[in-house]
Amino acid sequence: MVTATAGRQPGHAVLRAMSAVGTAAAGSVVMVDVANAGEVVAVDSWARGSGLSVLAVHNDAMEIFLGRLDDVSSIPSDRMPGTRVWFYTNFHCNLACDYCCAMSSPRSDPLMLPAPLVARLVDEAMSLGAREFFLTGGEPFLHPELDRIVESCAAAAPTLLLTNGMLLRGSRLQLLLRLPRENLILQVSLDSPTAQRHDRHRGEGSWAKAVAGIKTARDAGFAVRLAATLGSEASGDDVALAEMCADLGLDPQDTVVRRVAQQGAATDGIVLSRATLVPEICVSGRGVHWHPVAPLDEAMLVTTDISSLAPAVDAVRQEYLGYRRRGDVLAATFPCA
Amino acid sequence: MTPVLVGAVAYTANVVPIWEGIRDYFRGSAVEMDFVLFSNYERQVESLLAGTVDIAWNTNLAYVRTVRRTAGQCRALAMRDTDLTFRTVFVGRAGSGLSGLESIRGRRVALGSRDSGQARILPSKFLADAGISAPETTFLHFDSDVGKHGDTGRSELDALAAVLDDEADVAALGITTWESLLKGGDTGFEEIWTSAPYCHCNFTAMPRLEADRAAAWVAHLLAMDWENPDHRRILELEGLRAWVEPQLDGYRSLFDAVDEQGISSTW
């Protein structure tokens, strides 16, 4: 914090403010001493005209933020809420993993997003600056309109479809084969290089089916990558996972390793909050969420209105801007994809 | 390939995000770059001459001195669009009735640091060219932040304070300080005279920087786009909308002033 000392008349206060601001970093706060109401008015007028923000007026000093409080353009583009947009196509799943952040299972309320709604939201998201779409669940291949949903997304921007890869047989194989190869990557969950730990969290036989699903998708011409959700017991698996990628003909570099978050069914893992998590707009049948890792967390729910994205995106941008001002170092990304 | 090393003077905390942003922008380009920050322009120019850095982000005075020290062998590579139209403004108290250069004759004139092109060297030349000189006219000199060539604006603010305190009638400012002051609306000052445009900063390189590396570096620099939010953040902090090719005619008045005032090519 920079302090400039009070002088003799209103014009001096503006010169003090200019001096303090001139050598301070954008985004920092400077204190400018003021001796009377005339100086407050003069500094306030200059600060506002200069695109700066007066945070507070104390008895003998003014607190000036070097930036605009409502200027979302100060958010780096790779962290701008709305550039990565997620859809929970549905919440039900053929599995009931013990760490699932959505507590998905075969008994879950499906809460399926209708394909026409997703198509409309994709159009709106693009107008708000979306660059990538992500489809998750639940298990998206349980959604009968998944092909229409994927088509809407992939026609607009690169799209990632998260799946457990276990259902790619019969009618769901036909569903897979109808999906576009262009602009689409399938991200298959595989938690460990061998069946033991994957099956412990996800259910007996699930590892073998996932590996078979990866081969099916690859043989059908889809780009595939792996996502491993690792708990504390999984240290040292990264190398083995990379080797398995190579065995499956996948790029070992193209693997996402996710830590377990304390959300949904998970009783331990990383604790997340809006203030400490870089937002990624996420739409589900429940509403618009701060981040896809927390679709059940009421504190992460932005709005229950999913008819339009713009108000939620704007609200998240403003709130995130506030967290950034207070300390960017606190906010971290949580990669789901 | 070895990155091009660019020198810049750290006159504000913002130089760190500015140059980190520019360095990041060059990552993956044909010629990547890194940067070195100096505490003053003397160190920077000496380091350029010694080959410690390949390119220096120079003020107009640092450029003039580099030209003189290299017998004209150094090259200006690029500059900001705003460097093409830099001006000096003489201002006085609102209601002073002063207007035009001739009205300054016989008054008390507050000038900035001795190494500030905009607040000392060029205003002195403009007045001398009009035949306005001591002892008829009184000059007050504010040598604040010497070594930074007026970049901090500190000496110009000191000159303005002298006018407010009735220690001077007129203050000499760079156009950026005047425009910043105007953002407050009623400034308590008014413009007396504004100079013709002249050039301010540029990227200066020594002949040893290979032409193809220099050309690739400049081409990528000039491709920074105001419409790109990531680029705009850097451009706004550095005070420009676009990088442009240099226009050397704009340094003529400063070369003349340095000669006329006997300003040394060394420090």
Please, could you describe this protein's structure?
The complex is a heterodimer of chains A (337) and B (267). Chain A is built from nine helices and 13 strands. Helices cover 32% and strands 18% of the residues of chain A. Chain A starts with a strand and ends in a 10-residue tail after the last helix. Chain A is elongated, with a radius of gyration of 25 Å. In chain A, β11 and β12 (287-289) form a beta hairpin. Chain B has 267 residues and is α/β, with parallel strands linked by helices. The longest helix of chain B is centred in the middle third of the chain and has 13 residues, at 117-129. Chain B is globular.
**What is the first-to-last residue Cα distance of chain B?**
35 Å
Please give the order of strands in the largest beta sheet of chain B: 2-1-3-10-4-11
Structural category of chain A: alpha/beta
Strand content of chain B: 15-25%
Q: What's the average pLDDT of chain B?
A: 95
As a whole number of angstroms, the C-alpha radius of gyration of chain A is 25 Å
Report the uncertain regions of chain B.
none
Radius of gyration of chain B: 19 Å
What's this entry about, in short?
The complex is a heterodimer of chains A (337) and B (267). Chain A is built from nine helices and 13 strands.
List the helices and strands and how they pair.
The complex is a heterodimer of chains A (337) and B (267).
Chain A (H helix, E strand, L loop, with lengths): L1 E3 L5 H13 L6 E5 L3 H13 L3 E5 L3 E5 L18 E5 L26 H13 L4 E5 L9 H11 L2 E5 L6 H8 L6 E6 L5 H8 L3 H14 L3 E8 L6 H11 L7 E5 L22 E3 L2 E3 L11 E3 L6 H18 L10
Parallel strand pairs in A: 1-2, 5-6, 5-11, 6-7, 7-8, 8-9, 9-10
Antiparallel strand pairs in A: 2-4, 3-4, 11-12, 12-13
Helix pairs in contact in A: 1-2, 3-4
Chain B lengths: L3 E6 L5 H12 L6 E6 L2 H10 L4 E4 L1 H10 L5 E6 L7 E6 L14 E4 L5 H13 L8 E4 L12 H11 L5 E5 H8 L6 E6 L7 E4 L5 H12 L6 H10 L4 E2 L7 H9 L7
Parallel strand pairs in B: 1-2, 1-3, 6-7, 6-8
Antiparallel strand pairs in B: 3-10, 4-10, 4-11, 5-8, 5-9
Helix pairs in contact in B: 1-8, 2-3, 4-9
